[in-house]
Amino acid sequence: MDSTLDAKEATAPAQAAAPSDAVAAVLSGAVEQARQAIVEHSGDTVGDYLGVSFEDETAATHRFLANMPGYQGWQWAVVVAAYEGADHATVSEVVLVPGPTALLAPAWVPWDERIKPGDLSPGDLLAPGKDDPRLAPGYTATGDPLIDDTAFEVGFGRRQVLSALGRDETAQRWHDGDHGPDSPMARATKRVCRDCGFMVPLAGALGAMFGVCCNEMAADSHVVDFEYGCGAHSDTPQPAGTGSPLYDPYDDGVLEVVEVVATVADATAAPDDSEASQTPDVPATAEVPESPDVSETAEVADTETPEAPDGPGASEPGEQD
Question: Does residue 105 sit within a domain?
Answer without folding.
Answer: no
